[in-house]
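S1.2 Input.
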Amino acid sequence: IAAEADGSPCRMNDCIADPQGRLFSGSLFYEPSGKYPLGKLIRIDVDGSAQVVDEGFHISNGLAWSPGERELYFTDSGARCIYAYDYDRDSGNLRNRRVIVKVPAEEGLPDGLAVDAAGFLWSAQWYGSCVVRYDPSGAVERRIHVPAKQVSSIAFGGPDFTDIFITSAARSEP
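S1.3 Output.
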């Protein structure tokens, strides 16, 4: 749909659509040598145009909406942060970025993200062997341990959205 946004290549990671059909995704250029620039949060509008809406991210990851789409949550795994933005549904604009969760180094990296009907954030913790449920202020409400080291994402499903689906990854050794 879009090869670049404001002159930056669109090498995207996780993404999410809003009810108006706009797509939000973070670009991902992580490479330890620092050869690539920091990533950007990009919005692709329904007409196919793309623009950078925020920037300065290490490893762009999970995105989720608060109930009513008043806030957009966005994960930067490299910074170990989950950010919250105020969201304007009419324009698609974001403002007031703030850190809502800062994951301690010993607990892994925040990765995939979901929000439940009560407005709690659920974050998969890569290298943390768990998913964590945070209240809307960012406080840990519960932790569910998973028998996998690299927990990558979480989603809700089933007839009443009461089933939790958790994905994980593994790297095979040569």
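S1.4 Remarks. The chain has a mean pLDDT of 89.
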